[in-house]
User: Fold this.
Amino acid sequence: MRKFQLIQYLLIFFIILIILAFIPFQKAIVFQPNHSKAELAYIRVKDETDFQIKYTHSIHLSDVVESYKVTHDQRIQQYELMYEDFAIGMPSNAEKGETFEQINGAYYIKNMKREFSFFHLRIGQVRANHTVIFKNKEYPLSQSIKPGTSVKVEIRKLNFIKQWKGVNILESL
Assistant:
């Protein structure tokens, strides 16, 4: 009888563990490939909610830095854009409520309040060198995501299984 009870307790314990493994709990910035079976890449976020995406513009061959933060309702807000050249594909001025500044030869659009539930990004194959900047450290996305891949960037809660199968960008170098 005692052996049977032990087996029951172990079975209940393992069922609870399996259930817990599938409950989303960890907030993360997720880079989910759009048209691929490839696993997602992610950055866990807790108190730190700001991140930047830096890339080399394909025409100007100069750096562009887009600054974002995670909002309280799990959306992504772009709050700043920095670029070095006026030309094709770059804004020439700020929108209503935003400020435009030139600092040390770079152009900044600040006070942006553009919110997204997600956005799409294609990881550059040649020059773009898309990089995530998180906590002042740079992480080239090509280290975690195959160049040329189109990804959906969003804020999502991940369970243990998704984290285990995915690629933690902060640990991929």
